[in-house]
Amino acid sequence: MRKPFATAYDAIKKLLKSLFGKKEETDETVSNIEEGSEESGSEETSEEAAEEAEQQEKKEDKIVKQVLANIAEEEGIEEEKVSKGELDEQKKYEEEVKKRAQRAAKREAEDRKKEAAEAAAEKSGNVKTVIDPVTGEEIALGALPKEAIYLKKYMRIPTTSDDITVAINSIIKHTDMPKNIVILGRNGFGTVKVGEDFARSFYELGLVKSDKIAKTKAKQLNKMSLDTLTKLKGGCLIIENAGLVSFDKLVEVIKDSAPENNDYVVILTGEIDSLANFFEDNSDIVDSFIYLIDIHKIKERGMMHLARGYVKEKGYKADKSVYDKMKNNLKSMEEGNIDRFIGFIDEVIGRCDKREASKGTSDKEIQTSDV
Prior knowledge:
By secondary structure, the chain is an alpha/beta fold. Helices cover 57% and strands 9% of the residues. The protein contains twelve helices and seven strands. The protein has helices at 6-20, 22-40, 44-75, 79-124, 160-173, 192-204, 218-223, 247-256, 272-281, 300-313, 320-330, 338-359; strands at 129-131, 138-140, 181-185, 213-217, 236-240, 265-271, 291-294. It has a five-stranded parallel beta sheet. It has a two-stranded antiparallel sheet with strand order 1-2. The relative contact order is 0.08. Residues 1-9 and 18-43 have low confidence and may be disordered.
């Protein structure tokens, strides 16, 4: 970020140079003296010339600042306040970058530790243990209930699969605790589809009373009245880009979603650092969101596991050549954008249906021509 008045500063400085020629003259003097010092071997003259050039630079800077101050006064510009505001913004930006880097390093270390523990557990054949997010006790991981059919496609994605299994089993076990979910993605991710899969699975498991799902972006939610959510009673609300929701509005949503009111589950989706910042700044509502689903690390391999699981979930078949072509298409998308990739697969399935319908068949077998 350029400092306040930086463009004007450069322009005026250039103008002063052209008018007075001082800097160019000094530079030429330095050049001539340096050439002379090579012949005579004297360093003293060069040092004096450098010092003179530095003094000249300071004088020019002073003149430029005075000119800017005069302009600011004439135009009624509060230069000092503007400058301080931009400097504060720059400082805030730098602190945010540092904070994000620290979080990324911490996540990386935790992931390595978790992966090492998983590898050791698999090698030893011991039962895999995790921490219950409600009680803090170490428990056996267990398995994903068969009724959670819409979440099975995520079970071959490292870390994410454990988060999902822990969340579902813990919610079933602790029915008196909030069922709200936070889905942590990466910048550029679309994870609303993951939220929808949780909502559908909640209904299949009997954890919510209605199959109704409402979706809204945080900025829209900030402006709307919650009266529009009365029809959602017993269902699930998915908030996209949730790091941008206002604290007051989310508190309002939490109260509205309580069992004694409209009794719906709140699912937050968004970029991992934005959500981390939101919860750091609004610690009062942390207890309403116990379950975190970390999906920010999903790579190409995980996306292809997801594709195979989704095709199977929809009741279709496909061979390796189809998935190879899907992988090529995946390269043109943002890495890990689940919403866009699943939308693409839905289009492929639509083309498969259309092709088979024209032939009078219903084999539900995707061909490479459909991709």
